[in-house]
Write a structure and sequence with these properties.
heterodimer; A: mainly beta; four-stranded antiparallel β-sheet; B: mainly beta; six-stranded mixed β-sheet; five-stranded antiparallel β-sheet; globular
Chain lengths: 114, 112
């Protein structure tokens, strides 16, 4: 069964460093998303991406964050100047919208900022 | 906000018992979805119910939707230890968009 894949599964970074989290969405999907989940908290929407541009974003997704689809398969989340509070599990997801907005999630990238 | 909120926050039952989780949301929806998350893993879609549906079944899952009360319930029948997970309802952020917003979830523990 097709799946969303994410790398790395876990990354530790120094505060102030830049991090890029990578995702390969399901191949025929057109909408891509990033969510984050701080330990013990709910899953929070960050951004959605369609047709090579951001279509929706939350208040969390400020200038510290950016997304890119550098080629036909990858979808990345860049976090600049990381802060301790950016430590969280980051989930990539995708959908083709023909399934009524059912979104398919990857297994997540756990980011630890020290 | 379209955000769904689940209740109870935590539920502990014995294997074989039924588990019922509830979700309330704030504005009109086209559909509502339920997802499951095992600890430390990604979310997995369970079931989608459209606004013109009142009840839907999938295996041991039964979902109801009451748009007049802006609420939904997820019933897991004959629960198993493997059902231990967090369960979330989700609605779209914007009617014109596709992004889902999740509630805080119900953490279900099924003991054998």
């Amino acid at each position: 069964e097709p799946e969303v894949t994410q790398t790395p599964s876990h990354q530790v970074t120094q505060m102030g460093q830049e991090v890029i989290l990578r995702c390969v969405p399901i191949s025929n999907h057109l909408y891509f998303y990033w969510y984050r989940q701080i330990l013990g908290q709910k899953v929070e929407f960050l951004v959605s991406f369609y047709n090579n541009e951001i279509s929706e974003k939350s208040e969390i997704f400020d200038d510290q964050f950016s997304v890119e689809r550098p080629d036909g398969s990858n979808f990345t989340l860049k976090i600049r100047s990381t802060k301790l509070e950016d430590s969280a599990m980051y989930f990539c997801a995708s959908t083709d919208t023909t399934s009524g907005n059912t979104i398919y999630f990857g297994e997540g990238s756990w980011l630890t900022v020290v | 906000s379209q955000q769904g909120e689940e209740d109870p926050q935590a539920l502990s039952i014995q294997e074989g018992e039924n588990a019922t989780m509830n979700c309330s949301y704030k504005t009109s929806i086209n559909n509502l979805q339920w997802y499951r998350q095992n600890s430390g893993r990604g979310l997995v879609h369970l079931i989608l119910i459209r606004s013109n549906e009142r009840e839907k079944h999938s295996g041991r899952l039964r979902v109801t939707l009451d748009t007049s009360k802006k609420s939904s319930s997820l019933l897991i029948t004959a629960s198993r230890a493997a059902d231990t997970a967090s369960y979330f309802c989700a609605t779209v952020l914007n009617q014109a968009g596709t992004a889902l917003i999740f509630g805080k979830g119900t953490t279900l523990s099924v003991s054998s």
